[in-house]
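Second opinion, please. Pick holes in both lines of this record:
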Amino acid sequence: MAAYRTIAAGHEAIGEFEDRRSRFIAQAKGVSSEREAQAFIDEVRARHRDARHNVPAWILSDGREKCSDDGEPSHTAGMRTLEVLRGAQLADVCCVVTRYFGGTLLGPGGLKRAYTAAVQEALASAQKEGILVTRTLATRVTCVIPYSAYDRVLRMATDCAGKVADTIFAEDVQLTCLFRTGEEQRFVDAMREFCNGEDLCVVGEPAYAEM
């Protein structure tokens, strides 16, 4: 996976759908592990401990995913929630849909529509609030340079489509830039040429980051 969308750290998207007095409240949050996903599920269940169902689904960027119907008829709730997340090309995200029963049975078709609609409302809310972000497989390159070379190296990084991730001003300047994985070599080569063959760059392992 070269890139995926998720919900920005520290934010939660909420959407609600109602059908025949049954309320479906979808709550979605960015997570980075199964442990974080479970912690969010537990948090929502505590928040809505009086609800009849709290249906969870999560997808991680490493391909792992999980869902549960939490007592609803099979394949009417958890899988529908998961399919909406998949369809939106989301990863590292957990969504829990809380259902407050309104007294009328909705049937399998009604449940599928309701769970789908609630999750779609949450994602629409995230889009509107600007908290849906794209993470791209990126590689960090760090170099230590004299102050006199700082402006030149900064331009080189920009010309190579890099993004400054961190700068430490000490006796020299330690500059860390992010490049889409596969594009960092152009900057490394340019730096080697600029430094007359000296290799000043330390290249990190690829990891997902907002670019």
